Amino acid sequence: MQVLNLSTPSNPPRFSFFDLGFRAFFLGAAAYAVLSILIWFFVYSMGYQMPQSSITTMQWHAHEMIYGYSIAVIAGFLLTATKNWTGIQTLNGKPLLALACVWVAARITLFFGQIVAAAVLDLLFTLWLSQSIVAPIIKAKQWSQLAIVIKLLLLFVTNALFYLGAMGILAQGVNWGIYGGLYLVIGLILMMARRVVPFFIERGVDETVTLKNVKFLDLSSLALFLIFMVLELGNLSPQFSAYSAILLFIVNAIRLVNWHTPGIWKKPLLWSLYLAIWFICVGFLLFGLSYFLGISKFIAIHALSYAGIGAITLGMMSRVGLGHSGRDVSNPPKAVGIALGILILGAIVRVFFPLIDASHYLLWISISQGLWILAFVTFFITYLPLLTKAKT
Q1: Can you say whether the dihedral through the CA atoms of 97, 99, 103, 109 is positive or negative?
Q2: Distance in angstroms (rounded) separating the CA atoms of residues 2 and 223
Q3: Domain range annotation of the chain
Q4: What is the pLDDT of residues 196-238, one digit of tens each?
């Protein structure tokens, strides 16, 4: 008779949660994507009152999507990418745990209205993260990567403006902090997309393909985005801001046409990134049309944020999480495609349904919130074992 062996494996998977930045911060970002939007659902749809008075609940929601969720994804990505670029180990072990704790503490203190404590913790987090990235870049003399660090330091500045506004020191500080942070994250995404999306597509599709990049389009996109950002933040000329937004749509739409190949639609980790950048393009178009047709800018903002930032960060976390944990990025778990599909559906509901039927606006918001939560719950459950334990 055969005896069933129930003994513990000789080499159980090693706990590796703090081995590299993407593990802790991707799971943390996903968990916070669920928690923060769940809170926002009860606030926006159910009338829940948050325990703070220095900022509005809308301002808390906007701030946390940028400086809570988005920057956690950025942290995980940059701490991991910097090690790849330089060959130098970035934060891991106890220092990485400490950095993550600062991020969590900032979220908690801001939720309970402790503005000064939240400001200190939040700004400390960004400075510590910046130092952790810039040190190996300088040591390896990879000066071209410093452009990314500059954007991270600018996020420190815009977040500081937000807190100065929340403390009543700077009249326009809260708005500058929220919108400045949003545009910086979009700018960072466009810069990284130019680097990685064509690369991912060329190597990810089944067919052999060489995608076209045009330097004029790259330079035009950068210049137009800087003009758009300055005009919007300074409220200088709504008309010229609208023109710059429409031109941004055209330039980036041409780039996306150049990056298209039919093979992407077979790969969730490719079509999600591609559609995310299309949503950012749509966001620019809606910004322009808001001036000429009276479309709400909040719809344009959510095309950039929910649809653009949400889809591209979920797609990047899915890809990086697989690749850097030793899994095959060309064959992701089926749940990955499901999560990305749910989020894209939520983006469609959030952006396009209010344009079609504004009378059910609250319903569309609630549905899109539910789909966002479902997408990130699916990601979290799928990636929890992958990111907490080393592959055996």
Answers
A1: positive
A2: 72
A3: 21-387
A4: 889 899 988 888 888 888 889 889 999 999 999 999 998 888 8
Nearest alpha-carbon partner for 380 in 6, 138, 94, 25: 25
Asked whether 190 and 225 are in contact (CB, 8 A), the reply is: yes
What's the rounded Cα separation, in Å, for the pair 225 and 296? 20
Q: For residue 241, which amino acid is it?
A: S
Q: Which two tokens stand for residue 235?
A: 């409220």
Contact 15, 332 (CB under 8 A): no
Task: Give dist(CA 238, CA 229) in Å, integer.
Answer: 12
Q: In angstroms, rounded to a whole number, what is the distance separating the alpha carbons of residues 114 and 134? A: 30
CA distance 10 to 89: 29
- The whole-model pTM stands at 0.91
Q: How many CB atoms lie within 10 A of CB 105?
A: 18
Q: First-to-last CA distance in the chain?
A: 31
CA distance 378 to 335: 7
Provide CATH code, domain 21-387.
1.20.210.10
Both tokens assigned to 160: 């500081």
Residue with tokens 């009152």: 49
Tokens representing residue 263 in the block:
């093979």
Whole-number CA gyration radius for the chain: 21
**H-helix segments, 207-333:** 215-234, 238-259, 268-293, 297-302, 310-323
Cα–Cα distance, 13 to 385 (Å, whole number): 10
Q: Phi and psi (nearest 5°) for 15?
A: -65, 120
